[in-house]
Specification:
The complex is a heterodimer of chains A (about 375) and B (about 300). Chain A is of the alpha+beta class. A six-stranded mixed beta sheet of chain A has the order 6-7-8-3-9-10, sandwiched between helices. In chain A, strands 13-12-11-14-21 form a five-stranded antiparallel beta sheet. A four-stranded antiparallel beta sheet of chain A has the order 2-1-4-5, covered by helices on one side. Chain A contains eight helices and 21 strands. Chain A folds into two domains: about 5-235, P-loop containing nucleotide triphosphate hydrolases (Rossmann fold), CATH 3.40.50; about 240-355, OB fold (Dihydrolipoamide Acetyltransferase, E2P) (Beta Barrel), CATH 2.40.50. Helix content of chain A is about 25%, strand content about 35%. Chain B is flat, with a radius of gyration of 25 Å. The longest helix of chain B is centred in the first third of the chain and has 38 residues, at about 1-40. Chain B is mostly helical. Chain B starts with a helix and ends with a helix. Chain B has helices spanning about 1-40, 60-65, 70-100, 105-115, 120-130, 140-145, 160-190, 190-200, 205-230, 235-240, 255-265, 265-300. The chains are: A alpha+beta (about 375), B mainly alpha (about 300). The interface between A and B is medium-sized, with 29 and 25 residues. The complex binds adenosine-5'-diphosphate and magnesium ion.
């Protein structure tokens, strides 16, 4: 039983603070993904959990132990690195068994566990090769195998898939998920790719500039982003953001057009409030070509600037109030540029953010 | 017909282009090598040039095989090589590890480290001859002033001590070859496997032993190859410091060969010795080169 508990953890390099007192409780066997743009402090946080970076402030607990002052080898964790970090002079078998041998396990146990891990990861044929003789995907698998043989309290992954090509990345993503279902262990996974975060996580932790912006299940984070940063970072294509003002109970866009305030937010707005209307492309669809019935919608005529047919759906570039907006069309219908269509905005799934604080009115 | 001429001509071009190199090799390497090998089969004495025509077959070699003194010197040279290389390796490794840790003044230190290599071995020999001199040498002076000893230690007069002194000079002069190459290895070392090993449960010593050391060994083998060739032909330092004495106790292969060839003027015999010594160098080079190639197999193409 080992969850991980991060309490007011800070990291400073000299005078530069890169992690600003973050709190996070990770449950036993939970798969948590830290996601955020490059340089936001994800790796630093992970490395503090691993013990590869000193903790400048706060505490990290693994299970019942405060690990701040423990070296990595005493934390019983495994880590998979972006560059795989295999031992170049050892073959796959020795790479996998190294940690066990260092821990003083008997040769039988080492062989047994290595074979078990190799079986799980499809490495049985490759045990005698050196890392130089493996492809990127195979190296990645060895790195994961090295992590699982030791039966650690937690796995830490630092952008494990970012050196792979797109196809392989998709495959390995699925394998990691399967692996977690087979080998249930606490996982902390770092990535800058929101798709990986959405697909893998039990809970997503969105980070920016050394702060945690939001923690939640993928669906919570997707459906209820707490601010415009999370709203645009999670989801692809990103949520459209339109600056507006509240006027007589309506959302007044920059070109003077009016959109009703979503019913659930009416009580939270006031006259003259500067807001940002956020609406995902999937929630702006030509009438009759949406994701299904919307309880609450408003229709608006828009001219198509560009359409990208993707088969069963098309991505449509148009503009609302002079600002480029992406919309979706579901169904195998061809759309021409400069065609004018009636679009329905699904207001029950639209968001309003306070313009000054960028925070969602839902959470205020 | 024309086509035939053309193919003949194109076939000649590589040979033509190679000829300067081939001729140089012929005159600079092959001929002297052949000539010296021939003289090793004669009773050639430097002072009587006509003896070069007295062909004795393998007699010089056979005499060598039975020559106790020669084999003792042969063995001593191997011992000298083994000690010098190991000490230089260990010291060089220590220095490289220390310098790799330093962040400030590293360049300066690296430069200073190279100083001993900038002197001619002859001068190094003279310098250490002075340092180790039992009457006026600063080492004995220092030891006596510090009260560590009250008598003059015969550094260059006692056989064992003289050998030690020569090795000391050799090590002083050349440890930086190891240090520099190992430092280059440490700089080239990726950081990730070190961190992976720490997470995998290694303490600092285990990380060094299982990850760092295997990674930098190829660099050590390069240094060993260079230095084994260097030490196997050691002559200048020995000649200057002890001249092979006392009573031949510091005689190494090349001092013996030079004595036989130039002092005793028995050039045929000396050349036979030289050929056998070359085998030693080849053996060492081949050994380290094989080690290097083994180690390099895994160095290529890994992230
Ligand atoms: N050793 C270091 N010294 C100074 N600054 C560092 C160091 N390592 C990382 N940083 C800074 O810390 C910030 C967070 O880095 P990191 O955790 O690697 O980000 P990422 O979220 O991309 O993994 C970055 O701005 C980076 O420049
Ligand atoms: Mg990173």
């Amino acid at each position: 039983m080992a969850g991980i508990s991060i309490r007011a953890v800070e990291k400073a390099y000299g005078a530069v603070r890169v992690v600003h007192g973050i709190d996070l409780e990770i449950a036993h066997e939970e798969f948590v993904v830290l996601v955020g743009p490059s340089g936001c402090g994800k790796s630093t946080t992970l490395r503090m959990i691993a013990g590869l970076e000193d903790i400048s402030g706060g505490d990290v607990w693994i299970g019942q132990t405060r690990v701040n002052d423990l070296p990595p080898r005493k934390r019983n964790i495994s880590m998979v690195f972006q560059n795989y970090a295999l031992y170049p002079h050892m073959n796959v078998r020795d790479n996998l068994g190294f940690g066990l041998r260092i821990a003083g396990q008997s040769p039988q146990v080492v062989t047994e566990r290595v074979n078990e891990a190799a079986g799980i990861l499809g490495l049985s044929e490759l045990l005698d090769r050196t890392p130089a003789e493996l492809s990127g995907g195979q190296r990645q698998r060895v790195a994961m195998g090295r992590a699982i043989v030791r039966h650690p309290d937690a796995f830490l992954f630092d952008e494990p898939l970012s050196n792979l090509d797109a196809k392989l990345r998709g495959q390995m993503r699925a394998e990691i998920k399967k692996l977690h279902q087979k080998v249930r262990t606490t996982v902390v996974y770092v990535t800058h790719d929101q798709v990986e975060a959405m697909t893998l996580a039990d809970r997503i932790v969105v980070m920016r500039d050394g702060h945690i912006e939001q923690v939640g299940t993928p669906m919570q984070v997707f459906n209820h982003p707490v601010n415009t940063f999370v709203a645009t970072f999670i989801g692809s294509p990103p949520m459209n953001l339109l600056p507006a003002v509240i006027h007589e109970g309506q959302v007044l866009l920059r070109d003077g057009s009016l959109v009703p305030v979503p019913a659930r937010l009416r009580a939270k707005t006031h006259e003259g409030q500067d807001v940002v209307l956020g609406i995902r492309p999937d929630d702006i669809c030509p009438v009759g070509h949406g994701l299904g019935e919307t309880d609450e919608g408003t229709d608006i005529a828009l001219t198509v600037d560009l359409a990208e047919p993707l088969g069963m759906e098309s991505l449509i570039y148009t503009s609302i109030a002079g600002q480029e907006v992406q919309a979706k069309l579901y169904g195998p219908r061809i759309v021409q540029a400069s065609e004018t269509l009636s679009f329905r905005l699904a207001l029950d799934r639209a968001h309003l953010f306070d313009a000054a604080t960028t925070r969602s009115l839902d959470v205020l | 017909m024309i086509a035939f001429l053309r193919t003949r001509r194109t076939a000649l071009i590589p040979l033509l282009l190679l000829s300067p190199a081939l001729l140089t090799m012929l005159f600079v390497v092959a001929l002297p090598l052949g000539f010296s090998f021939y003289t090793s089969l004669t009773a050639y004495r430097l002072v009587r040039p006509e003896t070069i025509e007295i062909f004795v077959g393998l007699r010089n070699y056979i005499r060598l095989l039975e020559d106790w003194e020669f084999w003792r010197v042969f063995g001593r040279t191997i011992l000298f090589l083994a000690i010098a290389l190991n000490v230089e390796f260990l010291l060089g490794l220590g220095i490289a590890l220390l310098i790799a840790k330093i962040t400030w003044g590293q360049r300066t230190l690296r430069t200073i480290m190279m100083f001993p290599m900038m002197f001619s071995p002859i001068l190094v020999g003279f310098q250490f001859k002075f340092i180790f001199n039992d009457n006026i040498g600063i080492l004995n002076n220092a030891l006596q002033s510090l009260g560590l000893t009250d008598r003059a230690i015969p550094w260059l007069v006692d056989g064992r001590l003289a050998m030690f002194s020569i090795i000391f000079a050799e090590v002083w002069m050349s440890t930086s070859v190891f240090a520099i190459l190992l430092l280059a290895g440490l700089f080239a070392m990726p950081r990730d496997p070190l961190e992976a090993a720490k997470v995998d449960g290694c303490n600092s010593w285990q990380v060094f032993r299982h990850i760092t050391l295997p990674f930098i060994m190829p660099f050590a083998f390069i240094a060993m190859t260079i230095r084994s060739l260097d030490v196997a032909r050691a002559y200048d330092i020995v000649h200057v410091m002890t001249g092979g004495g006392p009573a031949g106790r510091t005689e190494l292969l090349w001092t013996l060969i030079a004595r036989t060839g130039y002092m005793d003027a028995r050039m045929g015999q000396a050349n036979a010795m030289a050929y056998l010594s070359t085998l030693l160098s080849i053996a060492f080079t081949w050994y380290f080169y094989t080690k290097l190639m083994q180690a390099r197999r895994y160095m290529g193409g890994v992230q």
